[in-house]
Amino acid sequence: MDVYADLHIHSPFSMATSPAVSPSSLLAGAAVKGIDVLGSGDALHAGWRRTWEAFENDSGIVVLPTAEVEGQGRVHHLIFMEDFAQFAELADRFAPHSRDIAVSGRPHVRLAGEAIAAAVHDCGGLIGPAHAFTPWTSLYAAHDSAAACYGREQIDFLELGLSADSSYGAGVPELDGVPFLTNSDAHSVHPTKLGREFNRLDVAGATPRAVFAAVRQGRITMNAGFFPEEGKYNRTACTRCYRQYALEEAADAGWICPDDGGRIKKGVCDRARELGGMNEPLDRPPYYHVIPLGEIVRVVCGACSAFTKGVERRYRQITDALGPEIAILAEIPVPAIAAVDPAVAAAVAAFREGRVVLVPGGGGKYGTFTLP
Questions:
Q1: H or E stretch at 349
Q2: Is the pTM of the predicted complex or chain greater than 0.90?
Q3: What is the CA radius of gyration of the chain?
């Protein structure tokens, strides 16, 4: 059966995460989005692990134990296990190499990618680079190849990140046969964050073991996420004023912005092209570009933020009437949406038909969009 899965989130024990994040709020948020499988996030943290283990989950949503660590070279790694006990074992292995594993949801581990991956595999888990193309804390920010990071250990998947879609990895020779994942990396339960990117998996049952097996066997039937231009690192740009540069211009400027002296960071688009990506992903599952419903409502309302009371009220009215957000974005006929909110229905139709005007982001600033 097909399920929608968001496999990368964070707990209150990670930096810049909402204190409102809890098992109950996460599962309630996932239900509103239409997420069937949710990563636990931060399962290396003993306190968060115990919170999930003690929580009585009667939501029908499967929780897969997951975690993220930062290894040598500031590379972030995403890890999946079948049960939380395996993460307890992995935490013990990492403890001699980490100063913050007892307190941080996303700990720093002073090991190379190969050693981290070997420990994960020894404990029975899966590992892959998180947000692999971003210009900070990623595989391709620190290395020119997966082998340079992971050595003889194989990666089990690759997470694309918000600034990339499947085309960015298509054509990179070493990624042939490596499953691509798209996840939210959410630090809050707000519907514009949780489930803003997700996967459709073909699973044999509604259990963590079945979900784990689907990822291990590459049974991803669809990736869904941002138009890459919406990501905040899509284009090469200054991290201070966000002026965007062609790659040649940035190199000529010595990667220092002549306008304000800010650092210029290479964009995901340029980095993927250097690696051989940016090709038509002919042998990949379909990639469905989505705009979070909350952002669509924000544009329709003319509001400056999706966190305003008016936007949130209108979002709730639509989802209360029509059901989960993913179904509204991808499945429910436009006339049915129009019966509840004609303006939002017109906007959903426009983005489904590709009538979206995108202003790419870069340097740490999210891209923007307009709808007719």
A1: helix 342-352
A2: yes
A3: 20
